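User: Good morning. I'm curious how pyridoxal-5'-phosphate would be positioned relative to this chain. Could you predict the structure with it bound?
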Amino acid sequence: MSVDFEAFQTMMVHATAQRVRAIAPVVTPSAAFGYSDAQEAEAIFSGEAQLPLYARVGNPTNAKLESALATMEGGLGAIATASGMGALAMVLTALLETGDEVLCIGGFFGGTFTLVKETFARFGIKSSFCETEDFDTIESKLQAGIKLVLLESVGNPSLTLPDLPRIFALCRRYKTLSLIDNTATPILLRPLELGADFVMYSTTKNIAGFAGPLGGAVIFRAVNEADDTLLDAKYAALHKFVKKAGKKAFMPILKKRALRDMGMTASALSSYITLLGLETLPLRVARVNQTVEKVVAILSERLPQDIRVNHPSLPTDAQHARYKAQFSQGCGPIFTLECGSKARAFALLDRLKLAIITANIGDNRTLALHMASTIYRDFGESDRRYLGVSEGLVRVSVGLESAEAIAEDFLQAANGL
Ligand SMILES: *Cc1c(COP(=O)(O)O)cnc(C)c1O
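Assistant: Good morning! Here's the predicted structure, ligand included:
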């Protein structure tokens, strides 16, 4: 399936703007909002009147970002959060209770891994992890009645690519909700269309694109009031929201069971700055993903033998067929370099002139980082192996520079070792 970047760019410049009065997004950095009278206050609190209530549960600037993201994903609605981790925490808190279990499939960002494995475990929420191709485990966990499937569209930094249509079909069959982290692949993948229930982003990354605002978002689908995964008996605690809000039930589920009480809300200023990035997202995604393929092709031919470039666009990569089938125009900004040892990885990083050494991805500039000594430094050996983090692994996130300039930077660094 090819991605129509032109159509997305046309959609997004309008989804982020207004046609009359201020064209640019309007920033409303007010914590409180006055109500015209007591009756209006009651109507706002009951949900009958769609007016701002108090900034912890939303504000007009967040609402603009939320509607633009819902348009981009083909979702019913969205909620902007203070960070990507806030978005994950919101969904997990809203859906899960002590004794529930989450199944995590494939590779994960370090923060997601510790959120589930350590933080939610402290509240009696269990988790299990399995490889993307381990369908025996996936099916037996679904059969056993787990509450949520969590996965990343592209494992960061493992670059594992799950078979999304097959996994979402199994979730539907066993009536289990799914949450996909699409941070690396906005525009390239529309997970709600493939059958996901929730899509989350760290908007800090590709969506803003310039390492300015920290932010996150969750986009959700409409609930089918006649027949929906959510109506399964294991989600009985959530059924009252379907009775009250119908197809919009995921909105109060997320707001009332997490955002209102825990306050992981985005600020109006962050949402405004994020919107400025979002309006050019399709252009940047198209460009970066072409560049990634060019850079890894050059590096795979010209790097010294003892440094290996990993990316599923390479014909020699084990996941190349799935890449072609699921990600015809790229799987995001990341590729990795296997340098063999920490010392060689450090030496390579220290010789880079263009790429910036930092813990971020999806920036307009090319970024690089040694994984084991930074994000994954507190992880045990077996967790690192599961997450695809070896001693010599360097993660690279490709930016808007020319492909030749990026490749040249890594070649000069590698050749000088
Ligand atoms: C960065 C990142 C997160 C966390 O987002 P923050 O905005 O830093 O909280 C989650 N998932 C992925 C894939 C990420 O790259």
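The mean pLDDT is 97. Residues 70 and 77 are 5 Å apart (CA to CA).
Let me know if you'd like a different ligand tried.
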